[in-house]
Amino acid sequence: MTQPSRRKIISPLQRGWIKVRLMQETQRLYIYNELSQVRGLIQILMKHRNGEQWSKEERELLLRDLRALSHLSPYLVLILMPGGILVLPLLAWWIDRRSKGRKNKDR
Predict the structure, then answer these.
(1) Is residue 35 included in any domain, yes or no?
(2) The model's pTM
(3) CA neighbours within 13 Å on the CB side: how many for 71?
(4) Average pLDDT for the chain
């Protein structure tokens, strides 16, 4: 006699939780990548405050870094709001849904 295969039955709530965790991981990686692009921002900003001039390359780096930070503004606003951290999973779902729509339109 062979034993029947054992399949783990996942409830709809567990499936939903798995999707939320995957979306959170996707957004965590996105935030990490954006923040890793702006590592030298403070040094460049302090250079101007200390009376030194920015070179052309430093101005380009500054613009690139500020643009990268502007993509994170929805996250930063939510994190700074009281209780805003509880809304992050909803924001992650909404942004993920929007990016999937854009990918489908490109095809």
Answers:
(1) no
(2) 0.47
(3) 15
(4) 77
